[in-house]
Amino acid sequence: AAMKADDLREIGDLGAGNGGSVKKVTHLPTGTTMAKKIVLIDAKPSVRKQILRELHILHGCHDPHIVSFYGAFVTDPNVCICLEFMDKGSLDGIYKKTGPIPIDVIGKIAFSVLSGLTYLYDVHRIIHRDIKPSNILANSSGEIKICDFGVSGELINSIADTFVGTSTYMSPERIQGAQYTVKSDVWSTGISLIELALGRFPFAESSSDDSDLSDLEGTLSPARAGNLRMSLSMGLDQVERRPKKKTDKKDKRKSNGVSLQGGGMTMSILELLQHIVNEPAPRLTPEGRFPVESEQFVDACLLKDPDARPTPKELLSFQWMLDTKNKDVDLVAWTATF
Ligand code: ATP
Ligand code: MG
């Protein structure tokens, strides 16, 4: 039966991101607990219907590492998406509570994320586009699953019209405007794994002269996301291979009729994006703290040249993943610790 608004009773808040909020709900006809994601879409009814049609393919996505989809519906300015409720929440919330996540657990997480990505790509030709700790969820059965992947082109467009979201997990080639490929998801996976292992966003200390960078972890407020969008749309050509060419930034800003002066945050994000493009990728550090196989794995995820970077499927046969498969890591016990 189709999902409808009247059948759901809200029983709590699960969180909010740039695009909307997520509620814990009971589906009254079945008694199932679900997560209802409310996405504010400022779009014509025809566009919303198109989004619903596109979301329909989620009904065919079944994998142990993909959050299940129950259905979606439109309510005035919103699209509501009903998902499997993951009672331990997202990995960003978890590591902020527990501190750095044990590397053996991260091995299992990496395996889950890559299996999910491989399923999405091999079976449905879907590229996730938004891998980050807040889109990797855990439950008390010890399962790790990914959510919020880009199934609906129209939904992506509609959200992009309003918000940009955190772009700090973006690969260098994406920052430079290249097409999304499944390799971009691998980069984002590598950044996320380092974040979980260190218990902090890996770029946070890279620019010690900028205290604002520390708020880049977590979410950006809509205002900040707006700033980011503005700078991205006007300034992406400043973030490029040739660090300094003729561009004198002043002219650039003037010609766009927007002043970036005084927008300290805006500049920090641009600087971060520049850093991702121009500087060596982060690594699992300090050396020797983590198994060498995990270091090699993360280094491969973060190869700056997307052609050299392995696909999710290739990564599944890296030594660290083979070791992980044979290892007894009790994720149920782990999730019972928080
Ligand atoms: P962004 O908007 O930048 O992508 P986000 O991923 O945190 O950030 P949402 O996707 O709106 O934003 O999710 C908000 C929060 O809701 C998540 O951080 C997560 O903790 C929680 N959440 C999302 N989906 C579920 C789910 N299926 N089960 C349990 N909690 C969920
Ligand atoms: Mg999310």
Give the topology.
Layout: E1 8-16, E2 20-27, E3 32-40, H1 45-55, E4 69-75, E5 78-84, H2 91-98, H3 103-124, E6 136-138, E7 144-146, H4 153-162, H5 172-175, H6 182-198, H7 222-235, H8 249-255, H9 264-278, H10 292-301, H11 312-315, H12 319-325, H13 331-335
Antiparallel strand pairs: 1-2, 2-3, 3-5, 4-5, 6-7
Helix pairs in contact: 3-6, 3-12, 6-10, 7-9
The structure holds adenosine-5'-triphosphate (ATP) and magnesium ion (MG).
Adenosine-5'-triphosphate (ATP) is lined by residues 14-20, 22, 35, 67, 83-86, 89-90, 93, 134-135, 137, 147-148, 165-166, 219.
Ligand kinds: adenosine-5'-triphosphate, magnesium ion
Q: Strands across the major sheet, in which order?
A: 1-2-3-5-4
Strand content: 5-15%
Would you report the number of β strands?
A: 7
- Over the alpha carbons, how many angstroms does the gyration radius reach? 20 Å
Largest sheet: 5 strands, antiparallel
**Topology as a string of helices (H) and strands (E):** EEEHEEHHEEHHHHHHHHHH
- Show unreliable segments: 206-264
Average of per-residue pLDDT values:
83
Which structural category do the helix and sheet elements fall into? alpha+beta
Number of helices, where a helix is a run of at least 4 consecutive DSSP H or I residues: 13
Distance from N terminus to C terminus (CA atoms, Å) equals 36 Å
Portion of residues within helices: 25-40%
Shape from CA axes?
Answer: globular
